């Protein structure tokens, strides 16, 4: 039976297969329905091939001028064939739950899908971002109502533009050279242009869904005669049928040509190549890379499945090769058997691959840190570029409005200027929040509260003008602001600055209400602190009003938070029974108390009956006195308990 199964015959899977074979493992099989048919677009740096050669200690005879992803796939595929590695056009179906192996499927001569069980000891998932093994294992856990072992998360929170276009074109080389820098220089592009012409150029991008006030990243690589490969950022919602028009408009702006003459490169006869394709880049990372269940194959996730790359940085394939080496180096081969330094694992079966999964996960996580930081830094810089663009374009739109004589265009530019003003004010508010969050101390809490409150109001006013990305970001910022306001409130409460604390806690609660943040425990914690402040300042009516606001969220709350809120509410109600007040006020207070005692009877008896014995007796006596008196309670509104 196959000792090792590799799912995926891309660069990662083929590199791993070749290295395992060189390590001495003979029983290897690679499954991929597209194996041998390599048409994947994308240019590669020469160092990727050099890295592959170094890893295999073999010459791959690659083109040192220009090479593509499909070229390295072909080279690695041919090397695998030379090493007699079995590669079959079959697709992974599922991991067996009963036997040590997997199921794959293939189409028979009748074009029917036929499943086949393949016994094996180890399965390496080299399916890239599809992560077919990881998804299959997660599905099994979900069916069994268990937590999923594999979880993906974004590497960067700053990915504003996710969609990109790759286009292989035959185009005049002099024209293509104008698209040389990944981030086009707008100073060069708009040199000699009037503010109106600049605004008009940017407005041509808007109907496609482009939300930024900069030119999309657009660059090319020349690889033969007048053949060039272009990469262009696109609106995230750009439909397939508009990619041609988008290519035209971007090239027109960047090259300053009204019309662009080019031809799409045709695929060779009988072969379809994706030479003009939209693709999405939003790098995700996996929380762990290994899985094993007793009696089933060991599973290892590799390559892009561990961490998706950013194609601009060109680290995807090189990083995958590096992490393959980490796996290979963890193995020891002896007489065609892969064994471990751990004597307990040696010779358990005829042929074993043993590795320390915990150590492997740690080593891989260490290896990808640099790539993760590179991705995070790239998107931070890109976000700065976009926001600088909005800030920089404001005076041009202001002047453009005065230069246009077209009333329709004037109205559109005026509306766009309002958007620019709102968004740049939002960016300033974010800076204010970040700056003041760091500077908070015991001596400046009032100033910080004022600055953060002003920034919060700016965000609320700008919200309708923000992009979808910025609106999501604003929600996250609001969640952080809640923490900031609570920190100010806590600090003020400790210093007995109750007025300041009340303002801060009310700002926090206002954000909960506006943004629909569903962390009710956090919200109730804020209500509890607000009620403490009201109690300390003897504001019974405000305590009761705050309790009424909090009440809808109390039902699902923990006993600890219920106990805290009820303690302070009962305390102030009892204390105020000694304070002179009108009959109407007294009845309202006691009606609230009676409702609270009835609704939260179990919590009070369990947690507060001892600590609030005097207060509870006092309230009970007062309620009894009302029932036994001739006080005209029926005339009091909102007192259903009397």
UniProtKB/TrEMBL annotation:
Q: Which residues form a coiled coil?
A: none
Q: Name one GO molecular function term.
A: monooxygenase activity
Per its UniProt record, what InterPro entries does this chain match?
FAD/NAD-bd_sf, TPR-like_helical_dom_sf
List UniProt keywords, sorted A-Z: Monooxygenase, Oxidoreductase
* Stated name of the protein: 4-hydroxybenzoate 3-monooxygenase
Q: Origin organism of this chain?
A: Legionella beliardensis
């Amino acid at each position: 039976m196959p000792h090792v199964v590799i799912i995926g015959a891309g660069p990662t899977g083929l590199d791993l297969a070749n290295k395992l074979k060189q390590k001495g493992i003979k029983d290897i099989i690679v499954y991929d329905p597209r194996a041998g048919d390599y048409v994947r677009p994308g240019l590669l740096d020469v160092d990727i091939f050099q890295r592959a050669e170094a890893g295999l200690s073999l010459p791959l005879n690659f083109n040192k001028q220009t090479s593509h992803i499909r070229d390295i796939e072909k080279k690695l595929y041919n090397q695998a064939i030379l090493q007699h590695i079995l590669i079959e056009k079959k697709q992974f179906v599922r991991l067996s739950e009963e036997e040590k192996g997997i199921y794959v499927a293939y189409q028979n001569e009748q074009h029917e899908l036929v499943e086949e069980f393949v016994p094996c000891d180890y399965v390496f998932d080299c399916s890239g971002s599809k992560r077919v093994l990881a998804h299959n294992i997660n599905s099994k856990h979900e069916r069994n109502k268990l937590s999923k072992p594999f979880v993906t998360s974004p590497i960067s929170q700053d990915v504003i533009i996710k969609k990109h276009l790759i286009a292989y074109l035959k185009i005049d080389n002099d024209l293509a050279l104008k698209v040389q820098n990944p981030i086009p220089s707008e100073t060069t592009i708009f040199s000699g242009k009037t503010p109106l012409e600049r605004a008009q150029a940017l407005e041509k991008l808007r109907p496609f869904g482009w939300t930024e006030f900069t030119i999309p990243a657009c660059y090319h690589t020349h690889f033969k005669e007048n053949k060039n490969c272009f990469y262009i950022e696109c609106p995230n919602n750009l439909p397939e049928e508009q990619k041609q028009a988008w290519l035209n408009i971007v090239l027109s702006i960047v090259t300053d040509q009204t019309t662009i003459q080019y031809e799409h490169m045709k695929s060779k006869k009988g072969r379809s190549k994706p030479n003009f394709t939209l693709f999405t880049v939003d790098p995700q990372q996996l929380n762990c890379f290994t899985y094993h269940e007793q009696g089933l194959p060991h599973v290892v996730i590799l390559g892009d499945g561990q961490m998706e790359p950013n194609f601009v940085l060109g680290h995807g394939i090189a990083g995958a090769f590096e992490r393959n080496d980490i796996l290979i180096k963890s193995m020891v081969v002896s007489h065609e058997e892969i064994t471990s330094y751990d004597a307990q694992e040696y010779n358990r079966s005829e042929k074993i691959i043993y590795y320390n999964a915990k150590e492997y996960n740690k080593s891989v996580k260490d290896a990808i840190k640099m790539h993760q930081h590179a991705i995070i830094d790239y998107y931070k810089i890109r976000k700065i570029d976009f926001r600088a663009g909005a800030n920089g374009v404001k005076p041009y739109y202001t002047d453009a409005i005065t230069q246009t004589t077209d009333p329709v265009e004037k109205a559109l530019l005026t509306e766009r200027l309002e958007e620019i003003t709102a968004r740049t004010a939002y960016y300033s508010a974010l800076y204010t929040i970040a700056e003041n969050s760091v500077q908070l101390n015991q001596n400046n809490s009032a100033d910080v509260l004022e600055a953060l409150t002003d920034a919060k109001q700016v965000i609320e006013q700008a919200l309708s003008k923000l992009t979808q990305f910025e609106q999501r970001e604003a929600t996250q910022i609001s969640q952080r602001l809640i923490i900031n306001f609570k920190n100010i409130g806590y600090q003020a409460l400790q210093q007995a600055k109750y007025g300041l604390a009340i303002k801060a806690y009310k700002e926090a609660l206002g954000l909960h209400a506006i943004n629909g943040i569903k962390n009710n425990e956090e919200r109730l914690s804020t209500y509890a602190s607000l009620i403490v402040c009201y109690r300390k300042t003897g504001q019974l009516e405000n305590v009761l009003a705050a309790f009424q606001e909090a009440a809808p969220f109390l039902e699902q709350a923990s006993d600890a938070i219920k106990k805290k809120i009820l303690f302070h509410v009962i305390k102030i109600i009892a204390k105020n029974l000694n304070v002179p007040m009108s009959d109407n006020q007294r009845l309202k207070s006691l009606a609230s108390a009676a409702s609270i005692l009835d609704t939260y009877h179990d919590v009070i008896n369990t947690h507060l009956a001892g600590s609030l014995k005097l207060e509870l007796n006092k309230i009970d006596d007062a309620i009894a006195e009302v029932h036994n008196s001739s006080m005209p309670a029926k005339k009091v509104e909102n007192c259903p308990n009397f």
